What does this fold into?
Amino acid sequence: MNGNPAAPASLAALASLNSPEAYLGHVMFVSGPEKHCGKTTFLNRAMTLARRGARVAGRVPPAVMTVGYDGEARDFLTGVRKPAVPVQPGDIFVTAERFLRPSGTCPEILDVAPGVGALGRLCLARASRDGMVALVGPEGNKAVSWILEALVEGGLADTVLVDGAINRITQAASRKAARFVYVLRVDRAGLHRAVDRVRRIGALMALPVALPMTGRGVSPARVSFHVDGALTTETAARIPGDVRSVVVDDFTKVFLDRSELAAFTRERSLAVARQIEFAGFVVSCRGLSDEEFLHKLDDQELAELVCFNPYRAAAEGAA
It folds into this structure.
């Protein structure tokens, strides 16, 4: 690492997640820590805003996709009813070929992703009429990157919303200049854990950007080290003892919990080679008030990044 790390971009200078401007012209990954945390509900709200903004701005309609499988009526594992994914004419969506006809959208197939997954070929399709779709997407980051390139560089869409895999944010690194939003549902019993998660993401977003290093491994002149891959408790233990500056490719490569991350950064500085833009937190409180969550969070800078259930706000006429 040559020189001091660059300061991270301001986290507070973001468009509100209740505004179309937060989505237009961006690839946005919607991430969350567990099943039924509200990702798909938020995705639907974001699509409504993006679609509305695209019409006003004269842009092409947005695209929507998932990592894995989503949009089914009930969860495959738990049987819990899930929110469907509605699309309108002009919207582009990605799903397995077998789910095109049941969507009722009279879809136009625009492209087909290479390879065949467990549910068949993945198609990039444009809706010709209103319908409800079951999104099916690739599992690997390389395939996610291929589809996003086909959508954006192929000129099919300049706004793409991606329903990310559960408890996995590494897919946000599959696309340069991508943004991501972190969605979580909070109840009183899980309040402490939710706040801990928000603080951990906030700490990762605050990591500075390192100036380029030459090569990998230890840089004797600066006593710094570039981790090639994930930073885990095991890889951290293997870093030479005299190293005081550590660089990872991006924040998705850090697999330390909040306490482990705090302990690591007390001993060494940690920076990222590439920053991934953060769009904010979406928090849906159940059985406690929004004010109670903010009081427990007790961090004004992070509080400015929290959007409380924008889908509910829209229903109440606040958006």
